Amino acid sequence: MTILSQVLEHNQSFVTNREYEQFKTDKFPHKSLAVLACMDARLVELLPKAMGLKNGDAKLIKNAGALVTHPWGSVMRSLLVAVYELRAEEICVVAHHDCGMRAIDPQHILDSACARGVSEETLTTLRGAGIDLEKWLKGFDNVEDSVRHTVEVIRSHPLMPHDVPVHGMVIHPTTGALSVIVDGYAGRTSQAA
Fold first, then answer.
1. Is 96 annotated as a binding residue?
2. Does residue 38 have a known ligand-binding role?
3. Using one digit for the tens of pLDDT, what is the confidence trace for 50-105?
4. How far apart are CA 141 and CA 147, in angstroms?
5. Is 26 annotated as belonging to a binding site?
6. Closest by alpha carbon to 144, among 164, 106, 171?
């Protein structure tokens, strides 16, 4: 049985048994929060539980490393939509220890791509178009510095309102313990309770 078949079989039972009813909510985050987190499989259930979030509490955006790599990319757009259209009033960036993006080797990824059928000609074409593949695929060396950088990219975005607190945290992928790296309330004259 394929993974897709397993998913669809489970889904049919899920819908037939009306298991979805426990997750009913609307599109607005009840805690007025947007969370940018790493896509690591260990965090699928751990992160919301460690943060005290249930379905409907937050907008959850996930990618490799919890990074904003480009100020005009889809992650930043999603955060802006969350703030302006979906009533998010605060943002949390949550990376984690033991992240696969730490010290990732871009050349290894490119070698793997070629081994799976991507041609050298394609890589040459992309580089000729001005895409620095190694820089684009590079992760980070220090998770705390990465969180600080991503928080700063979000805070300093010309379309992000200055009154939106942007917090940065690192979660332990086993225990769920959160460490605050950037307190988005720091330096503000009024703070949310």
1. yes
2. yes
3. 999 999 999 999 999 999 988 999 999 999 999 999 999 999 999 999 999 998 99
4. 11
5. no
6. 171
